[in-house]
Amino acid sequence: MEEAYRAALACIKGMNSLALPRLLHMTDGARELWEIFKSGGARACALVGAEKAAAYADDCRSTEPEAVLENLKRKGIRIITPQDRCFSDRLRAIYDPPALLFIVGNEPPEDVPYVAVVGARKASSYGRWAAGCIGGELARRGVVVVSGAAYGIDGHAHRGCLEGGGFTMAVLGCGIDNVYPYEHAGLLRSIASSGCIISEYPPGEAPLPWRFPHRNRIIAGLSHAVVVVEATEKSGALITADIALEEGREVMAVPGPIGSALSRGTNRLIQKGAKLVMEVEDICEELNFACVSSSLTASGSSCRPGAVSGMAMSPLERRCVEILQGIPRSLDWIAAREKVPVPELLACLTSMSFKGWIAEEAGGRYRLLVDPCSD
Amino acid sequence: MFTRVDSCSILGMEVVEVEVEVNTSGSLPGIYMVGLPDTAVRESYRRIKAAVANSGLLFCRQLITVNLAPAHLRKEGSNFDLPIALAILAVSGSLKPEALAGRLVVGELALDGKVRGVRGSLAMALQARRQGREEIIVPMRNLREAARIEGIKVTGVATLLEALEYLQGKSIEQPHFDDGDDDGADYPCLSEVKGQLQAKRALEIAAAGFHNILFIGPPGSGKSMLAERLPGVLPPLNGEEMLEVSSIHSVAGLLDPDRPLRRHPPFRAPHHSISHVGLVGGGRNFPRPGEITLSHRGVLFLDELPEFRRDALEVLRQPMESGSVTISRSLICNSFPARFLLVAGMNPCPCGFLGDIQRACSCSPSEVRRYYHRVSGPLLDRIDLQVEVPRLSPQELVELPAGETSQRVRERVMESRDRQRSRWQGRAVNASAGLVRMRAVCRLGEEEKRFMYAAADRLGLTARGFDRCLRVARTIADLAGRERIGVADLAEAVQYRSLERLWGSTTGGEVSCGRSL
């Protein structure tokens, strides 16, 4: 019953999802708050102001809480409240936990570590590769990967986790039935089928900019640790990291080249004391979970760059791998340095990128993805 | 009294012969002009009267009826001034009527009796020769242009009096033109562009196989510089093409009278505010050629492709396939040739700095996506070569060596054209050859097939994309003088599918935008 009232309250038009937990705290549960709003009396005015109280009253009188719950069920949306057993203790412990969560997909597993992998939307191929690697390796170790389903790092962390056969959680900054970003429709479908999508916003809410920082507190709150893969100095991922620090969670970061604007945020985090992540083991070390350490010994692989034997390369490929170390280079630069005819070089770069050794970035530069030293 | 003289008019792009008939009858002096003359033609009476008087001749003092036949066609332009004046002089006895027979006369009159130049004299001379005329009389200003047509006598006249005296039997002096190869087309050299090796290589392939090309790069990276150099890499026009291109430009009034024959492929770069009519041609009564016809056998450069109006870009699709465009209007239906090489330029994102090493891009991923979607897929599908043109750092600009000259590249292009000519019996180039024949010629070996299927899978190539890739590989092999397409040719061809590489399935529909030192 209480559940239905909570859902109905969250679905009231114009309800501030941040204020709802406070309101519930001030009254004696959801049912009473609902009745207060429904009456539209002085108590309601004292709680939310006369204007809102009137609007809420209208809304409440025309709605049946059971019908709201029924309606959600028809759409395949369930709700979790802090009273539920499956509502994460960690999330309950944060400064301003949500009054309830809307959820689509599977029940989040208990007693396993949760790690948030977050970062820039406009990521480099390096960042996307790293996010995918970390997501995949965490999945193989039974860790739940939490992220925000945005472009770039978020999306690739989810993809990596799905490919690794793990459970991944997407926390949305909009109504749970909103597909945002639109291009991630397919990704969200797969997350819902093998992981879950959660949101504190009722169905139909738009992805407004101020919702995302609030959403980040849930990402941080759900997780034992937050790994920032790539972030500029003003990135929203750093908000997640800040909240995580305030809530006493581990914050880790993947380093990047000092010249890269996309790594300035993460490098700065490391400078301030965040743990530097080179391998997935670096993350797992911080998570005191039996399942993690046991699988750690079983699988030796990590997200080190794939080692490619020099034997497998043609002479030109070997030269390209050598000079591409460190920073991405343009075709002009490679051709001028190696004195190779352009047609031959283009053919070589194609075959290298097909083998997954290099990636091309916007701006016509090629980045090395493999480790040439390990022969 | 009755006289007749032949002249011609331009309808759209066609030259139409018009008979100018003049009849006088003993009545009060005056003039009737019939045969659907437009304003410029009707006004010609005033010019003729003044020109005759100022040449010291006597104007006919009877009622004059001028008929322009065929009567159902609307006549436009001022090129009937001279023939009407000569016919009126003939009926008033200054000229024997036989003197006008067999000749085609065009020219506009100035009030003082001088003959002014007209538009399209090259096309008129060409038409006159086709009709088996012995002679065409043109304004002196157009003599150089019309005289390019061999097999017909072309006479230039500077004044009305001179024309009259010439027809009376007096010989007039004709200047002699010694035209060299210079047609005023001075395309800059490819060696002036530093770096951008992939883009230059793409230009060479584009020129060899007549493949359309798209440059993607931030502002100031040299997209326009590269595009302007493409006509200089294309083979010069052969005799037939020269006449075809020159006559289009003659009709459009774009020929330089002092350098009338276009020996080099034209280059047109319309601004992105152009309408679809401006691009493909059209007009209210008589369709005029558009930019795609003016760039026939040459280069059409559309810079800032996503800024062009969508309707203007969409009308390009059909001419790109068929090499001509048919325009129907209420009075006339014209077919214009339009076999052009499309060079398009665009920024990598709305702000222009996606992937730039020096400046950060301020666009959101969805803005970038919308920007690319402004150009329709079917149009991009028809662009075989898509090349990124990165902006070079000042250091790179200084250090990188100057490349090859346009002339050296052109020599290779011409060699590859020779190979294509023997393959397609001179009827096509690699980009436009028929699909069935292309499939037969580009038969791949086992290894090549395996590579191509893997590439198609990785890049998410459409069937058309696959076919375009094969054609580019064919041109690459032609440039290298190879009879068979090898894996290296295919691997290089794949490099020119930038959009699919950036947006294809492998990246999950995102562009990576690494910035580094």
Q: In words, what does this structure look like?
A:
The complex is a heterodimer of chains A (375) and B (517). With 375 residues, chain A is α/β, with parallel strands linked by helices. Chain A contains 18 helices and 14 strands. In chain A, the strands form three sheets. In chain A, strands 1-2-6-5-4-3-7-8-9 form a nine-stranded mixed sheet, sandwiched between helices. Chain A has a three-stranded antiparallel sheet with strand order 11-13-12. The relative contact order of chain A is 0.10. Chain B is α/β, with parallel strands linked by helices. Helix content of chain B is 39%, strand content 16%. Chain B has 23 helices and 18 strands. Chain B is elongated and about 90 Å long. In chain B, strands 11-14-17-10-18 form a five-stranded parallel sheet. In chain B, strands 1-2-4-3 form a four-stranded mixed sheet. Residues 504-517 of chain B have low confidence and may be disordered. Chains A and B meet through α8, α9, α17, α18 and β12 of A and α7, α15, α20 and α22 of B.
